Amino acid sequence: MSCTSVSSFTTSLFVPSKCLSLPNQKRRLIQCSLGGTVVEPKATAASEPLLLNAVRGQDVERPPVWLMRQAGRYMKSYQVICEKYPSFRERSENVDLVVEISLQPWNVFQPDGVILFSDILTPLSGMNIPFDIVKGKGPIIFDPIATAGDVDQVREFSPEESVPYVGEALTILQKEVDNKAAVLGFVGAPFTLASYVVEGGSSKNFTKIKRLAFSQPKVLHSLLQIFATSMTKYIRYQADNGAQAVQIFDSWATELSPVDFEEFSLPYLKQIVDAVKQTHPDLPLILYASGSGGLLERLALTGVDVVSLDWTVDMAEGRRRLGHDIAVQGNVDPGVLFGSKEFITNRIHDTVTKAGKGKHILNLGHGIKVGTPEENVAHFFEVAKAISFDP
């Protein structure tokens, strides 16, 4: 992306640190090819967070920005908490810790979205599916589901009873952030949750869930229906307690062929979206599925407000395939944050240019990686928050 210097400017909170050491006459606006300028962010009179305005197609001065897994293992402050509380479940099921970890990136980078620190598997214990998340191994399902009898033992999820700490944490987060950013909740999609509980954890080949799908489809459909009903309740619960948008993660749906996606994932995603929109019509719903290039048009059929693209999809191509009626999120490669600051800047500008003005949330195309330099994350936010569209 080509940029040219056009005029001097005064420093602001989001000016890259290197600029602060330059003489005033060398502090410049940057005219970018997307038709905007890097300027001091303007105060907005809108009462709604920027992210919500962007999703709803309102005029915004820049794309909102947050990062998936932004309260992650790359932050030194998070490592300190991990040393004191080594169990992931303890960290994610304690109100005070959830709030503290969720606010860590907010306190440092001021993203436009503050996402709840949790896990998509958090509801499982309340559904009579014992599990744990073990360091170095990931999720472990103690009694994987394999039969109709196993499915009969699964309970519908009651978030009020099983995860009251989630509602408490979201309420606190909304008060702390105070509409300066959107508070984001999230849930797992039915097929992805079913994959974990049938496979017994993470999987490389997904042979167990596919064996169930193709040899006993009624059994799998029964399980998927329980998850669909339960996640609908969970999204409503999160919204009622402070979440201003909710992201649905269908991480493993892209292991399905398009025809199988249409049978085992799409109907349940659509059911969730339709049901939530009946009670919470203004709640933005975001859908993310990694490796979804072959399914983009089908993801849009779910009725979500935002499709989050992974980095293997060209943003301009994704826009064309999805159409401009639906918002997009993404999609910088998380590996870019290991590059030079100039490289990071160029990739941000490239992504924003291809996404165009409006209905775009700038994000990574996947969760941020362990070991990502915090100074590069700071640079990502500085550059992103300095972009400005022409009026």
UniProtKB/TrEMBL annotation:
Domain (Uroporphyrinogen decarboxylase (URO-D)) ranges: 64-73, 184-200
Protein name: Uroporphyrinogen decarboxylase
Protein EC: 4.1.1.37
Organism listed in the record: Hibiscus sabdariffa (roselle)
Pathway membership, UniProt: Porphyrin-containing compound metabolism; protoporphyrin-IX biosynthesis; coproporphyrinogen-III from 5-aminolevulinate: step 4/4
Entry-linked NCBIfam families: hemE
Class of enzymatic activity (EC top level): lyase
Keyword terms of this UniProt record: Chlorophyll biosynthesis, Decarboxylase, Lyase, Porphyrin biosynthesis
Function: Catalyzes the decarboxylation of four acetate groups of uroporphyrinogen-III to yield coproporphyrinogen-III.
Lineage: Eukaryota, Viridiplantae, Streptophyta, Embryophyta, Tracheophyta
